[in-house]
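Amino acids appear as letters; backbone shape is given numerically. Here is one record.
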Amino acid sequence: MQVGILGKKMGMTQIFDQDGNCIPVTVIQAGPCYVTGIKTPARDHYTAIQLGFEEVPDKKLNLPRKGHLKKAEVKPLKVLREFRVPEDAITDITLGQEIDVNQFKPGDFVDVIGTSKGKGFTGVMKRHNFHGSKSTHGVHEYFRHGGSIGGCTPQHTIKGKKMPGRSGAARVTLQNVEVVQVRGQDHLLMVKGGLPGARNSLVMLRKAVKK
């Protein structure tokens, strides 16, 4: 059963299928992950498993994290994330169990969750795709501005108004991404197309919800 996996985005490359067609793919170092927690309806009112990823030196973890991982009897792990699973699936899962990429196969569809690249403080044209002001008819030093941010009523700027601000560095979910190749011995997964985030950024893969 596909319960999901954690990985790191390594970069993009291309591979060729049997017909010689070029397919752009993103390479993900997926796992190995370890089950560090199990959420049950009786105790937690929902069903999920917590996976740990990326081994680190023991000295880099605080005492609460060490105590939590000690219950699962796993190595010191840097990243912990939860994946929702069906209630009947947790009966086959145990603490400390290893989860690898072999749960996926070419042709499967997954949802990929990552953090997009941060763009810093940007204006409304880059952040919200505003078209800007005219370049003629007396417009002066207002070409990339956003225009009015409110009228006489209600005498304040309405909440949610599209304005300049920090752009990017947000959680992004890419749905129905096709798995092209699985290399279980190397813990590598290749999926079609690009993914959100920079190189070496964390990504979460789970079974596609809408497929």
About this structure: The helical segments are 41-44, 63-72, 124-128.
